[in-house]
């Protein structure tokens, strides 16, 4: 059993919390773009409130522990490990409820190279507890605007976790998928589930557009968010996202394994 104290030490050593790789400059740029309602940063959320950059700095200081001083404009951003641990406990509690109720769940990630293993372990445990792990619209195409222009991806599932791949990527040896912030894949998956007439998810677990896109459509959503992902925390503040865990979402994939053990233990789920 991994204690909260041991996990706190790991969060700091792996730079999942504490001083993280995400820079203050990158985070402030995201807050500016969010305040301007740039869809690249809204990632599927349609904010109800008018958010200024100063409001977002205050919110992220409260939720993540970043500096609340707008004059801090450079250096590494900071995440309070205490806030990460508290959110992980709330995250685990929601998984426990889903397992107890045998709720259908949908898991998806825009960070497959980093977070696929974390979500796949949750999918395995929830499935073992009797939850239906949904895989709707598998193989469907979705067009996503990237910095390289409009690109077509395929919606796929690996160990019960949704992701997007470029056509032919798996044949070329790419076993995970593409990095994406877009809410379009979760919209496609949810529409596919509805069209198939099967169960709809009672809980969506993921990051980026998977969380914001699902929450905006009225589905309960929980996930992980970095300091440059204000949309997830705004969604939580406005009541459309249930839980967001503040952490660096782009460290080495094996650094998330202790979090997996901690969450499954707190949720009373088998590993």
Description:
The chain has 271 residues and is an alpha/beta fold. It has one domain. The protein is built from 10 helices and 9 strands. The chain has a 7-stranded mixed sheet with strand order 4-5-6-3-7-8-9. It has a two-stranded antiparallel ribbon with strand order 1-2. β5 and β6 form a beta hairpin. α5 packs across α10, α6 packs parallel to α10 and α7 crosses α8. The longest helix has 20 residues. It starts with a helix and ends in a 5-residue tail after the last helix. The relative contact order is 0.20. The mean pLDDT is 95.
User: How does the overall form come out from the CA principal axes?
Assistant: globular
Report the radius of gyration as a whole number of Å: 18 Å
Count of the domains: 1
Q: Enumerate the spans where pLDDT stays under 50 for 5 or more consecutive residues.
A: none
Main β-sheet: number of strands, strand sense, barrel status? 7 strands, mixed
Q: Class by helix and strand content?
A: alpha/beta
Quickly count the helices: 10
Order of helices and strands: HEHHHEHEHEEEHEHEHEH
* N/C terminus separation: 11 Å
Residues in helices, as a percent range: 40-55%
Overall pLDDT? 95
Number of strands: 9
The strands making up the biggest β-sheet line up spatially as: 4-5-6-3-7-8-9
**How would you describe the oligomerization state of the chains in this entry?**
single chain
């Amino acid at each position: 059993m991994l204690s909260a104290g041991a996990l706190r030490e790991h969060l700091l050593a792996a730079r999942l919390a504490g001083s993280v790789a995400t820079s203050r400059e990158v985070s402030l740029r995201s807050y500016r773009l969010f305040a301007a309602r740039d869809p690249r940063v809204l990632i599927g959320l349609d904010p109800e409130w008018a958010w200024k950059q100063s409001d977002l700095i205050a919110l992220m200081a409260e939720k993540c522990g970043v500096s609340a001083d707008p004059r801090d404009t450079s250096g590494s951003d900071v995440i309070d490990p205490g806030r990460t641990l508290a959110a992980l406990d709330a995250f685990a509690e929601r998984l426990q409820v889903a397992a107890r109720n045998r709720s259908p769940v949908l898991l998806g990630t825009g960070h497959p190279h980093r977070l696929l293993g974390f979500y796949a372990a949750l999918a395995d445990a929830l499935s073992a507890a009797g939850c239906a792990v949904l895989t709707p619209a598998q193989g469907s195409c979705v067009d996503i605007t990237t910095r390289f222009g409009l690109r077509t991806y395929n919606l796929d599932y690996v160990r019960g976790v949704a992701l997007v791949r470029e056509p032919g990527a798996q044949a070329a040896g790419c076993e995970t998928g593409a990095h994406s912030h877009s809410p379009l894949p979760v919209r496609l998956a949810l529409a596919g589930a509805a069209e198939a007439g099967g169960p709809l998810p009672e809980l969506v677990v993921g990051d980026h557009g998977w969380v914001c896109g699902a929450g905006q459509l009225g589905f309960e959503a929980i996930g992980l968010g970095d300091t440059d992902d204000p949309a997830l925390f705004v969604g939580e503040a406005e009541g459309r996202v249930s839980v967001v865990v503040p952490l660096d979402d782009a460290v080495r994939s094996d650094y998330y394994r202790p979090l997996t053990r901690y969450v499954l233990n707190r949720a009373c789920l088998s590993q």
